[in-house]
Write a structure and sequence with these properties.
Elements (H helix, E strand, L loop, with lengths): L11 H7 L3 E6 L2 E7 L1 E5 L12 E4 L15 E5 L11 E4 L4 E2 L5 E7 L4 E6 L1 E6 L2 E6 L6 E3 L30
Antiparallel strand pairs: 1-2, 1-5, 3-4, 6-11, 7-8, 8-9, 8-12, 10-11
Length: 175
């Protein structure tokens, strides 16, 4: 089986991980079978309207059914080799990361015994949705303050928001 190769990789380790990215086809009538694909061609420029890249794959003919011209399939890409993980990946809500006075990223850690917060400098990585990766500065298991983080100060005493305290729309409120 040949592997999908990513273009424009930034370092040798990333290039090696990209070279082992696997692609598979799954057909509607055979959801539990994955058929290996070989990358034949990939566009280097995105389509102006869809902002997608055209890719062409080839595969050996399955032995248990006939693939006819024009049939569609779902293509699965195993991108797990592209992820850089050194053990556990720590992600926190984006709103939990604040800039200190010199604009270095930090999070507020809650001490559950005293209910006081303390700022801790962190290094951040990739952002995905509403979460951001913390690459250094957290051991794991710390309680991070996200709600109201911009208004906190070193040593400030806080309370936990009750789980049942959620905003509920009233009759006549716009949705």
């Amino acid at each position: 089986m040949r592997m999908v190769r990513a273009d424009r990789v930034k370092d040798r380790a990333t290039e090696e991980r990209a070279s082992v990215t696997r692609a598979y086809a799954v057909f509607e009538g055979y959801p539990d079978e994955k058929f290996p694909l070989q990358l034949k061609e990939i566009a280097t420029k995105a389509n102006d309207q869809t902002q997608t890249f055209r890719a062409t794959f080839a595969m050996d003919a399955p032995t248990n059914f006939t693939v006819l011209p024009g049939m569609t399939t779902t293509v699965l890409l195993d991108l797990s080799q592209l992820l850089v993980t050194d053990g556990i990946v720590k992600r926190v809500p984006v709103r939990a990361v604040q800039g200190d006075s010199s604009l270095k990223p930090r999070v507020w850690i809650l001490d559950p015994q005293t209910m006081q917060v303390s700022g801790r400098e962190v290094n951040i990585g990739r952002m995905s949705g509403g979460m951001i990766e913390v690459t250094e500065g957290l051991a794991g298991g710390e309680e991070i303050v996200a709600v109201g983080a911009p208004y906190l100060a070193e040593g400030m005493q806080v309370t936990r928001m009750a789980v049942t305290e959620q905003a509920v729309s009233r009759d006549g409120d716009p949705l």
